[in-house]
Structure formats: structure tokens, C-alpha cells
Amino acid sequence: MGKMSEQREKAAQEVLSGIKAAVVARKYGVTPGTVNQWVRDYREEHGEQDHPYPQEQAEEMKRLLEVEKKYEKAVKMLGEKDLEIEILRELLKKPTPAYPKNSR
């Protein structure tokens, strides 16, 4: 198969980025079936790794958001633990008037 036209490649990339084929078809004045064929041609020419399926992109974004939330929670917990440690260190430095040394 020959090289795809720039317009067809652009349309295929739009669909692969998550825009519905019907919307892209309206934009370029063709049928959704034609746009879907352009997408198939684009995948044949460029391979699957260039643009994953929109569902794969959505799943990856969901996974990344979960990882980011866990990371933020871990950073917050680490900060709280650092604060607790600092407070305990400061308490250890202070004399303990509640327990006088000569009370035995």
C-alpha cells in the first residue's frame, strides 16, 4: 500500500487519540466507514505501538491516576511521620518535670 495522504493520516490520528470516527468523518466530509478504513491503513503503515486503541489509552490513564493518588498519599504519610519523629526528638530533648529524677 502506498503512502497515506497527510489529510488521511491526520484524520486517523484524531480517531486514534479518542475522537469518535463519526465526528472526524463530518469534519473531513466523508463517511465514518471511510475514516475507519483510514485508521486501519494508518495502523498497517505505522504499526500498533504508534497509537494504542482509545480503550487502552483510557485504561492507562486510569492506572496512572491511581498511581498518582497512591504516590500523593504516600508522600503525605511520609511527611506526617517526619513531623512525628521531629516532635518526639524535641520531647526527648526537654527535661521531664512530671517525673523528677529524685522521686524514688
TrEMBL record:
It comes from the Bacteria. Residues 7-47 form the Insertion element IS150 protein InsJ-like helix-turn-helix domain. It holds the Pfam family HTH_28. InterPro entries: Homeodomain-like_sf, InsJ-like_HTH. This is Helix-turn-helix domain-containing protein.
